[in-house]
């Protein structure tokens, strides 16, 4: 079923009515908004307009057959970041090492974040001439890679800025990019969405639960997820600065190396189970929810 949600309203009963572009409506006790970076329901939760802000960063993307990069002297079959001032290149193998995913990042650090508005679409085709011009002087390996980037795309990277202070209002709850759209520099946006869903399902999945516990469960979700996901969002922005030579600890190679030490540890080694409320410590918050009608909406990737 493909329907576009355009608004949500609250009934005196506390239930919500979702309206769709085709004129249809749906009433639900709980609305789970997984409708992506351009979320329609985010403003309902925040109670004010929220902004997707251009980050002054561009990513040019392509996927290259590994065979085409045999002339590259660097070991291209392992994840790499090629670092330069206000630019960096990320390469890593995919599809059982048959292809190499390539992303060329560039940053305009001369203007404040949010000072530039980019008209839609935010993803456009680009040319090899542009890539070769912007990465001139990056060395033989980079030149080989860029020459093999067929039909590259150009992404104007946006994120949610400032971050939300809550992901819940009444019985509408945000997950994924709808809650904390972030930059890709830690590769953790999808992971945070999965953590959102894990937390929410843990809280509303107890078979002993009753509908009356729903508000407590959503409050617990908010207390767990906002601090952590917003921390990862902030770290992702800082990581982009570090690998562009503009990190808070300096831009020399030793300074960059120092700033990268342990940067993924709080993301990869976070204990999700231990972070959840338990029946022993927060019994009511761990109960949830028989007999509710719910609506969960997800968005495809929309440029």
Q: What would you say about this model in short?
A:
30% of the residues lie in helices and 25% in strands. The chain is of the alpha+beta class.
**What is the ordering of alpha helices and beta strands?**
EEEEHEEEEEHHEEEHHHHHHHE
Give the biggest beta sheet. Answer: 6 strands, antiparallel
Shape annotation: elongated
Q: Roughly what fraction of the amino acids lie in strands?
A: 25-35%
Oligomer: single chain
Strand arrangement, major sheet: 6-7-8-5-10-9
**How many strands in all?**
13
Count the DSSP helices.
10
User: Which residues form runs of ≥5 with pLDDT under 50?
Assistant: 278-290, 299-303
How confident is the prediction overall: mean pLDDT?
90
The amount of helix comes to 25-40%
- First-last Cα distance: 21 Å
Radius of gyration (Å): 22 Å
Describe the protein's architecture and organization.
- The chain has 303 residues and is of the alpha+beta class.
- The chain contains ten helices and 13 strands.
- A six-stranded antiparallel beta sheet has the order 6-7-8-5-10-9, with no helix packed on it. Strands 11-12-4-13 form a four-stranded mixed beta sheet. A three-stranded antiparallel beta sheet has the order 1-2-3, with no helix packed on it.
- Strand 7 (87-94) and strand 8 (99-107) form a beta hairpin.
- 33% of the residues are buried.
């Amino acid at each position: 079923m493909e329907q576009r949600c355009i608004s949500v309203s609250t009934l005196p009963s506390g239930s919500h009515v979702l309206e769709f572009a085709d004129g249809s409506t749906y009433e639900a006790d709980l609305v789970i908004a997984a409708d992506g970076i351009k979320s329609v329901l985010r403003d309902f939760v925040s109670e004010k307009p929220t902004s997707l802000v251009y980050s002054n960063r561009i990513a040019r993307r392509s996927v290259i057959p590994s065979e085409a990069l045999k002339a590259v002297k660097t070991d291209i079959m392992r994840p790499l970041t090629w670092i330069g001032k206000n630019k960096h290149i990320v390469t890593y193998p995919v599809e059982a090492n048959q292809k190499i995913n390539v992303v060329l990042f560039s940053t305009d650090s001369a203007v404040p974040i949010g000072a530039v508005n980019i008209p839609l679409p935010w993803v456009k085709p680009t040319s090899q001439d542009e890539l070769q011009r912007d990465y001139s002087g990056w060395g033989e390996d980079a030149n080989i890679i860029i020459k093999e980037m067929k039909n590259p795309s150009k992404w104007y990277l946006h994120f949610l800025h400032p971050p939300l202070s809550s992901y819940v209002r009444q019985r509408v709850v945000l997950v994924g990019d709808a809650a904390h759209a972030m930059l890709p520099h830690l590769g953790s946006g999808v992971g945070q969405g999965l953590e959102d869903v894990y937390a929410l399902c843990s809280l509303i999945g107890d078979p002993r639960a009753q509908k009356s516990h729903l508000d407590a469960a959503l409050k617990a979700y908010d207390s767990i997820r906002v601090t952590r996901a917003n921390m990862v969002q902030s770290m992702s922005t800082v990581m982009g600065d570090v690998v562009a030579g503009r990190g808070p600890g300096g831009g020399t190679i030793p300074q960059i190396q120092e700033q990268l030490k342990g940067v993924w540890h709080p993301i990869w080694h976070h204990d999700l189970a231990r972070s959840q409320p338990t029946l022993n410590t927060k019994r009511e918050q761990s109960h949830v929810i028989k007999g509710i009608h719910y609506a969960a909406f997800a968005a495809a990737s929309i440029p």
